[in-house]
Write a structure and sequence with these properties.
The complex is a heterodimer. Chain A is mainly alpha-helical. Chain A contains 12 helices and no strands. In chain B, helix 5 crosses helix 6, helix 5 runs antiparallel to helix 8 and helix 12 runs antiparallel to helix 14. Classes of the chains: A mainly alpha, B alpha+beta.
């Protein structure tokens, strides 16, 4: 078991390195001067001095320099916000995204799973059909629509929550709910399918025949099996939710990390692109490894495959 | 088991919420405004955005400062008027005896020289170096000498590291060969790799060169036309008389800098420069609570000091208690919030969480303009800005993307200008209160300058000119119009007008802004949108862009007659004659050669809550906060 975990970890490190190398290749091959601000052209000499200072005129040197720094958790300077380091930007924004992402995932699990189980148990009943509509909306409506709708309705019309921003408890529920909707819908759907599968299996018929109560059958026996596909989805989904969403952050003015993924690329801010990608891919890989371990623990049958 | 997991989740959730709720909350500032993105930099030598200027000009104060109502220069850290020599070339400023930094230190002449030098030195200099090199005697020579040294030291550093040398750096290396004993440029790197001791030689030679250069720097700098006669007297010698020098003196790159920054200077081998010969500081120096190496945190000399700055959240300014006029500042705390999404900012303004919006660039800006103009919303104002939106015509390239470039012919450029219905564009297509532009320099902002009238629309003449130029609109190649996503509407309308009026085929190409900027600067376009915000109140802030070889001459335009007029104007002492020469120069642009096609002067909508006094709509979008009064 520990050997297998070790193998997964090594593979994970290699994956992160691969992602870094690929991102680096993209970063250096995209045109555009990261130091240019606004409409005014930067004098050539000034741009060259900055490139020399940040080792950007030598791709190999920059590649190694950034990687060496990253291993020491030092991601170096950003070019767009010259007064800040990548570390500072991540330190300011990652906790925000993690709080929001965590809340969103808790909401998604706590609502998504009961909905999924309920709709599987009463298949084709009114609950199943009703939640299907909600699930479809959750999956297909982009967050900028749901977010704006929630904002307009709850904040502007009913004045129940502040209009965007960050810093008080009242700022949390709307963006967390918006962020959780697509995850919630997916979890509900996955749970439903897996539950249907489990409920029709032989061992459950046996359990029912032996007189187990429906509650025990559903939650102790069926759900335990049905939870596995949901769990494997939760790994990458949590990593994604916790590293921020550009759209949710933009709609609600949340100072999270999602915006930096997009803005850094638009600004050709090599340091910030590489560091946000590294943080995201590390989290993603870590959550996947964690889920794999949990998987083996929950279901000894598949230990071999891990 | 699931119950346990659920309970754990709930406990964690509760913990997060409790922690979050327990976090310290500060009371709201007396005045809150919104920036559409965070400050790009607070380093006055490096900043280039209007929103960065705005906050810098409230934190620091130059020799002069802007009047909040008119934005005209008024006395800042120095007394006005300065003593000006008869030839108009030498200014002697006397610094107020009560001018103080936010730690109580006196503001001295050397602080200004330090700030100005940072705006010049390779390493800290960026976009606005030209404001100093174009005006202060000897500054351009100093910068050229420094740049040459930087190229040389950078190449030497590479070589001492045993790396290969880029061919672009060869000229610099050849200079090294002339200096150094037996250091032939070609094969030098090869030689280094063969013998280890040679690399060490290269290393010590690099250090020796850097030492020699650093020793000379201060001496050379002391010969430029800016010097401290004593702590309170600053003498500036200009290259030519400059009618707007007092206005320039309020600009960010002319702000002073406190001596504590030297604690954060990067050093190489004990020298005040980096291995590349650059002047560099720890970029954290703009933080209020940064204390590496005994640094006291950011010290400024303006009406406010920086209390707190958290990226993408807010910056808080509080009154600088040592400011000479601190007692008369009524608004003691100011918050700058960051809202990437201006619609959210407008909602926050409507909800009362924000007092001032200095920009409202939203997709429904025409509606905002209507509310402001009709008086339905007396708190919405339109600033008729000192800025121009225009099209660049590529005047240099023979071909663009494999097609011949018809815009090299001035007749074609003239025809396109004549065939555009700017009134329809501004009033019917955009309808957001902008002014139609007939000239490059926005009229009205500089009272004594009356820009040329430009040419009225004349489609028949335009067709004739095209025929004259031998351009058959139907058979000729399509003309490319390069723009960014935000220009979609206006560029579609322009293309449509040319197609209808001239029968031309126009291809629109939208590019992402960074790539667009590069294509434009390197003349890889036929027609490209442009906009320009004037930096100081003189026509040259616009007209210099089109001088031959100017770094912002994106159309590649060159006309010796135009250049000569600008030169003559620069040397001219009599203000009226000088403005006459500039007007003649501008007439060449908008009535003869058409390297650019001015379309409109922006009207920028702003919102000021009725309880706020002391903020005035102005063409430069400068908003000094020192006269603010907020009644709650």
């Amino acid at each position: 078991m520990s050997k297998r975990v070790l193998r997964r970890i090594i593979l994970g490190v290699l994956t992160v390195f691969g992602v870094y190398a690929l991102t680096f290749l993209l970063v250096v091959s995209v045109p555009g001067n990261p130091f240019q601000q606004g409409e005014r052209n930067m004098p050539r000499e000034a741009a060259e001095a900055l490139r020399a200072r940040y080792n950007m005129d030598n791709n190999w040197a920059y590649f190694g320099q950034f990687l060496r720094g990253a291993l020491r958790w030092d991601f170096g300077p950003t070019f767009t916000y010259a007064d800040w380091t990548c570390n500072q930007i991540i330190a300011e924004s990652l906790p925000v995204s993690m709080i929001l992402g965590f809340l969103a995932m808790v909401l998604a699990v706590m609502i998504g799973i009961p909905v999924g189980v309920g709709s599987a148990v009463r298949r084709d009943g009114w609950f199943d059909v009703g939640t299907l509509g909600f699930v479809l909306l959750g999956i297909s409506l982009p967050t900028f629509v749901t977010g704006s709708a929630l904002l307009t309705l709850l904040s502007v019309t009913w004045k129940l929550a502040p209009v965007g921003g960050w810093g008080t408890l009242a700022h949390l529920p709307l963006p967390a709910l918006t962020l959780s909707l697509p995850f919630m819908a997916t979890i509900a759907r996955l749970t439903r399918v897996a539950m249907l599968d489990a409920l029709s299996s032989d061992f459950l018929r046996t359990a029912t025949a032996k007189g187990a109560s429906p509650r025990v059958v559903i939650w102790r026996h069926a759900f335990r099996v049905a939870f596995l596909p949901v769990l494997s989805y939760l790994g990458p989904a949590t990593a994604q939710a916790m590293t921020g969403s550009f759209v949710v952050e933009k709609v609600f003015g949340v100072p999270g990390m999602g915006q930096h993924f997009v803005n850094a690329a638009l600004n050709r801010d090599a340091g910030l692109i590489l560091s946000t990608v590294l943080v995201f891919s590390t989290l993603l890989v870590a959550f996947n490894v964690l889920i794999d371990v949990l998987y083996a623990w929950l279901d000894p049958r598949i230990t071999e495959a891990v | 088991m699931f119950r346990n997991v659920l309970l754990a989740c709930l406990a964690l959730l509760g913990g997060v919420v409790a922690l979050y709720a327990a976090a310290e909350r500060e009371p709201r500032a007396a005045f809150t405004y919104v920036n559409p993105s965070d400050i790009h930099t607070l380093d006055p030598a490096r900043m280039s955005w209007t929103q960065d200027f705005r906050i810098a000009l409230n934190l620091w104060e130059g020799l002069t400062t802007s009047d909040p109502r008119t934005t005209e220069p008024v006395a800042g850290a120095a007394r006005l008027p300065p003593r000006v020599s008869d030839d108009g070339l030498t200014y002697v400023f006397t610094i107020r005896p009560d001018a103080r930094w936010s730690n109580g230190d006196a503001v001295v002449a050397a602080d200004f020289l330090r700030g100005w030098r940072r705006a010049l030195e390779p390493g800290t200099a960026t976009d606005y170096t030209f404001l100093l090199t174009d005006h202060i005697a000897g500054a351009a020579g100093y910068v050229a000498w420094r740049r040459e040294a930087v190229a040389r030291l950078t190449a030497l550093k590479r070589r001492s590291e045993g790396g290969t040398v880029d061919t672009r750096q060869m000229p610099a290396l050849e200079q090294v060969a002339a200096l150094g004993p037996g250091m032939a440029a070609s094969g030098a790197a090869e030689h280094d790799r063969k013998s280890g001791s040679a690399a060490a030689d290269g290393m010590s030679f690099h250090v020796r060169s850097a030492r020699k250069h650093a020793a000379e720097m201060d001496e050379r700098f002391s010969h430029i036309g800016a010097r401290a006669i004593d702590d309170r007297t600053l003498e500036v010698r200009l290259i030519h008389p400059c009618a707007y020098f007092l206005d320039l003196a309020a600009f960010p790159c002319f702000l002073p800098c406190h001596e504590s920054i030297e604690l954060l200077r990067e050093r190489y081998a004990g020298l005040p420069i980096t291995a590349e010969g650059l002047v560099a500081y720890d970029p954290q120096w703009t933080k209020p609570r940064y204390h590496r190496n005994g640094y006291p945190g950011l010290i400024t000399n303006g009406p406010f000091r920086l209390e707190d700055w958290r990226i993408k959240r807010r910056a808080r300014l509080v009154v600088n208690p040592f400011y000479y006029d601190a007692a008369s500042i009524r608004c003691r705390t100011i918050d700058m919030l960051v809202y990437d999404n201006l619609t959210a900012a407008i909602m926050a303004y409507e909800a009362g969480a924000v007092d001032f919006l200095p920009a409202m660039d939203v997709p429904y800006d025409h509606e905002i303009a209507r509310l402001a103009q009709s008086g339905e919303r007396p708190d919405f104002h339109l600033c008729q800005t000192f800025a121009t939106y225009f099209l660049n015509f590529n005047c240099v390239s023979d071909s663009v993307n494999g097609r011949s470039n018809p815009l090299r012919d001035a007749r074609v450029r003239r025809a396109l200008s004549l065939a555009l219905d700017k009134h329809a564009l501004v009033e019917r297509v955009l309808n957001r209160g902008d002014r139609v532009a007939r000239s490059f320099v926005p009229p009205g902002a500089i009272p004594e300058y009356h820009p040329p009238a430009g040419l009225p629309m004349d489609v028949a003449e335009a067709r004739r000119l095209l025929a004259d130029a031998g351009l058959d609109p139907a058979a000729g190649p399509a003309i490319e119009l390069l723009h960014v996503a935000t220009d979609e509407l206006i560029c579609q309308a322009v293309a449509r007008m040319w197609e209808e009026n001239l029968g031309l085929r126009v291809e629109l190409r939208s590019k992402e802004s960074k790539t667009f900027g590069e294509d434009k600067a390197e003349h890889r376009y036929m027609i490209a949108r442009g906009n320009w915000y004037g930096d100081y109140m003189d026509p040259t802030t616009f007209l210099d862009c089109l001088a031959t070889g100017n770094g912002n001459n994106d159309s590649g335009y060159s006309n010796p007659h135009y250049d000569a007029l600008l030169r003559d104007a620069a040397a001219m002492r009599d203000p009226a004659v000088r403005l006459g020469l500039l007007r003649a120069a501008e007439a060449i642009l908008v009535e003869e050669d058409f390297p650019i096609l001015p379309i409109l002067h922006y009207a920028t909508p702003i919102a000021i809550k009725p309880q706020v006094q002391g903020l005035y709509p102005n063409p430069r979008l400068r908003f000094p906060f020192r006269d603010l009064v907020v009644q709650r």
